[in-house]
Specification:
The chain is an alpha+beta fold and about 625 residues long. It folds into five domains: about 90 residues, GIY-YIG endonuclease (3-Layer(aba) Sandwich), CATH 3.40.1440.10; about 100 residues, no CATH class; about 120 residues, Nucleotidyltransferase, domain 5 (2-Layer Sandwich); about 180 residues, UvrC, RNAse H endonuclease domain (Nucleotidyltransferase, domain 5); about 55 residues, DNA polymerase, domain 1 (Orthogonal Bundle). The chain is about 45% helix and about 20% strand. The protein is built from 20 helices and 21 strands. Strands 14, 15, 16, 17, 18, 19, 20 and 21 form an eight-stranded mixed beta sheet that branches. Strands 4, 8, 9, 10, 11, 12 and 13 form a seven-stranded mixed beta sheet that branches. A three-stranded antiparallel beta sheet has the order 2-1-3. α12 packs parallel to α13. The longest helix has about 35 residues. The radius of gyration is 35 Å and the shape is extended. The two termini are about 65 Å apart. About 0% of the residues have low confidence.
Length: about 625
């Protein structure tokens, strides 16, 4: 059924003066932006008013809008929740997005069980257990759990009590004195509960009782000359003190808080979060926000808080922010409804809290600066290297490079490879493999001619078909032609490529990647001249990577074909050699080459091979050698 034309002006007049969510689509019907509004009519119309001041990002987004739709809600709070869900579901191109695939670990205490356990958990569930966290280091959580189990000798098994008491022998943990074996009834439930209570006290940050207890036990063991036991207590004491030191006091009110600040770059922003639990800084984490060009810090903070706290199971009592953010009242209301108790959002101006936010901002800037340096180095390895190659060849610019290689081993099927680099980075989705169809024997030039002819003929035909249908957005990898063709070799391979391009009336720069006697990249062959390259330059390193990648890809394809069809392709042509004898031959001999070189007596050593079959095999390979 033909889709009706969407009249934006007519649809704008129909917008209701109610809260809701609006969804912008492009001409391919992809969702490019999702937003919420207190009054849909006013908000959506503002995008299409020329008098409304817009950032460059929003101007670009508006130019792509082909249609919009909206969902009316009963309140702004409902609109916020729906907006979050839709952004998470569709990841629209022009929404500021939180790049986060992390899950944070918790320590779980199964207090509802008869003999509780302390476990590692990836999420917090409503299962009557006590949870501590979230923590930023899974390794630290596991170490803490191991330490607590050693200190209080709690069980780590999955047995169900009292049902499983006495059913099996005590496990190894009991024998090495790390479990009180409730499975045997060696400890009462009340006595075990006392140990769990101490463990909970430890997890709540009260380390003094256990430190005092360990110091006393260490001293007693030492006085009784039980030095091995004293060393064990000393090691436990050291572990407890290390945990205690990590739990740095940051606030005197012992509340759960998240401290949030950001540093903004041209295209991305880094948000730093300090996690404070029970007044202690338990860790920190940074997050990347993309598509922030033109966005104010308050808008980025708002997007971060909505997206991050929509996905995390734990919401602290207070968020301390670097500055006021957009929609603060409604977000505070939403967080309160999610947590089930009041959540406060504050922007501290003086004192220790303000210093903590400042520290988070400095950390965010540090991460962003390091990231800039990393991006700069990466651009040097990619875009910078491509510019070096372009300057070396005297061409204006290079965006796409294609490299070709041929693999032919021991006369087995010859294959060709095409690897693609765009802006100095491999574009693996555009790599292509070719099984040679028209060439017999080892003729690399003829094989390369076939590969290049097939590649560019296919591209020309595809392009004509797409141009006829006016489907430019569906261009495939063959329809994208390179700015530079790199051949694995020197003059001969380059000339083959130039001949193919001339026959197809195409004008593309071609050069060869020349190797030295040790099979290492030496330089480029271009316009009948070998151009040396500085071996320490990024351009040289990129050419080496491309040449190695083309070779690797060809060899990998060749190997996969051999593993699938090598035996069939050669041995199936021998009369009287079926699957069983073929398998027996390959089991006895390591390679086809060994079978080819074997004499009659050696062939007959294979149990399944009779004298007649040996004669057939021997005669077959001798005939091939003529």
């Amino acid at each position: 059924m033909e889709q009706l034309e969407f009249d934006i002006e007519a649809e704008l007049k129909k917008l209701p003066a109610k809260p809701g969510v609006y969804i912008m689509h492009d001409k391919k019907d992809a969702i490019i932006y999702v937003g919420k509004a207190i009054i849909l009519k006013n908000r959506v119309k503002s995008y299409f008013r020329s008098s409304t001041k817009k950032t460059a990002k929003i101007q670009k987004m508006v130019s792509l809008i082909a249609r919009f739709e909206y969902i009316v809600t009963d309140s702004e709070l409902e609109a916020l929740v729906l907006e979050n869900n839709l952004i998470k579901e569709h990841s629209p191109k022009y929404n500021t997005m939180l790049k986060d695939d992390k899950t944070y670990p918790y320590i779980k205490v199964t207090v509802s069980e008869a003999f509780p356990r302390i476990l590692f958990a990836r999420d917090m569930k409503k299962d009557k257990s006590k949870y501590f966290g979230p923590f930023t280091s899974a390794a630290a959580v596991k170490d803490t759990i191991e330490l607590i189990n050693k200190l209080y000798k709690l069980r780590t098994c999955n047995k169900v009590f009292p049902r499983d008491i006495g059913k099996d022998r005590p496990c190894l943990n009991h024998h090495i004195k790390q479990c009180m074996a409730p499975c045997q009834g060696y400890i009462t439930e009340d006595a075990y509960a006392e140990r769990v209570a101490k463990a909970l006290e430890f997890l709540n940050g009260n380390y003094k009782p256990i430190i005092k207890e360990l110091e006393e036990k260490m001293r007693e063991a030492s006085e009784q000359m039980q030095f091995e036991t004293a060393i064990e207590y000393r090691e436990l004491l050291t572990s407890v003190k290390m945990v205690a030191q990590k739990q740095k006091i940051t606030d005197s009110d012992f509340e759960d808080k998240d401290v949030i600040a950001l540093a903004k770059g041209e295209r991305d922003a880094v948000v730093q979060v300090f996690f404070i639990r029970a007044g202690k800084l338990i860790g920190r984490e940074h997050f990347y926000m993309t598509q922030v060009s033109g966005d104010e810090p308050r808008e980025i903070l708002s997007d971060f808080v909505k997206q991050y706290y929509a996905g995390t199971p734990f919401i602290p009592k207070e968020l301390m922010l670097q500055e006021d953010m957009a929609d603060v009242d409604i977000i505070e209301q939403w967080l309160t409804s999610r947590k089930g108790s009041r959540v406060h959002i504050r922007v501290p101006k003086i004192g220790n809290k303000e210093k903590l936010v400042e520290l988070a901002a400095k950390n965010a800037m540090l991460v962003l600066s390091k990231d800039r340096e990393r991006i700069k180095r990466e651009e040097g390895r990619t875009i910078g290297a491509v510019k070096e190659i372009a300057a070396l060849l005297g061409v204006s610019s290079i965006q796409r490079m294609e490299a070709f290689d041929i693999s032919n081993i021991s006369g087995f099927e010859t294959v060709g490879s095409m690897v693609v680099y765009e802006k100095g980075k491999p574009r693996r989705s555009d790599y292509r493999k070719f099984k040679i169809k028209t060439v017999t024997g080892q003729d690399d030039y003829a094989c390369m001619r076939e590969v290049l002819t097939r590649r560019f003929t296919h591209g020309i035909e595809e392009k004509k078909e797409l141009d006829t249908k006016q489907m430019e957005h569906e261009l495939g990898s063959f329809t994208k032609f390179p700015d530079l063709i790199l051949m694995d070799g020197g003059r001969g391979q380059v000339n083959i490529a130039l001949e193919v391009l001339q026959e197809l009336h195409m004008d593309i720069t071609v050069c060869g990647m020349v190797k030295d006697d040790n099979h290492r990249t030496r330089g480029l062959y271009y316009n009948n001249v070998e151009i040396p390259i500085d071996r320490y330059s990024e351009g040289f390193k990129l050419i080496t990577r491309i040449q190695d990648e083309a070779h690797r890809f060809a060899i990998e394809y060749h190997r996969s074909l051999r593993s699938k069809t090598q035996v069939k392709s050669v041995l199936d042509d021998i009369p009287g050699i079926g699957p069983a004898r073929r398998k027996a031959l390959m089991k006895h001999f390591d390679t086809i080459e060994d079978i080819r070189n074997a004499g009659m007596e050696e062939l007959m050593q294979v149990p399944e091979i009779s004298q007649k079959s040996a004669e057939e095999i021997y005669a077959f390979f001798r005939e091939k050698q003529k």
